[in-house]
Amino acid sequence: MRTPVSIGLIGSTGDEVMRALAPRIERLGFNALWLNDVPGGDSLAGLRAAAGVTETLGLATGVIPLDRRPATTLDLTGLPVDRVTIGIGSGRARHPLALVEDGIAALRESTGASIVVGALGPRMRRLAAEQADGVLFNWLTPEAADPAMADLRAAAGDRAARGILYVRTIVDPAARAELEQEAERYGAFPSYAANFARLGIRAIDATLDGPAGLPDYDGVVDEIVLRAITPTGSLAELEHFVETAAGWRDAV
Prior knowledge:
Largest sheet: 8 strands, parallel, barrel
């Protein structure tokens, strides 16, 4: 597969699981490990745990909501800057563009790590293209990702701005209920519901539940993140997920 493939985990994944799983993800040749940032889970702490047991694996947050965790409060110590991507977003801020623009500026002063922005709408994507190092797309089918990438490249001009796509994925039919619940939850958010309506898709259409759909993303974006959805999130299930996903990737 030409497009680099990464693994995404929930940010509340425990350090013990992270230290056991990250070396396997690296050994299997995945591009990076992405941790989303959720209440009760610190993505940066999780990345520090992964950094200590890996040597080349990319480490990324996807994304830290700046309304909950301001950029000036983020503790980036202990993270290898050359391997790290800090993903940020506006959360539910009243003035999202200003918040993210200030956040990018603050991070530029404090770290040399790559910065990407979780962007749903065109104005946020343009801001990311002009000031950050890329965009983290979410809940897009390959058909919807293609024009989004074209817009990103046009807005970036001569700047090198990456387009990364988060795709909720299951490798075990037993996780289908969890995948459907995740899709229903996002489909109920007004901003996402409006975006799905504009695109003419359902949230579940932008997920993977088998290897057949993976080739459709190849060459569309600069990196695809397979966000692991498993029945319980156990280490054994996650190990099975990354092994199976590696097989899917290698078959493309």
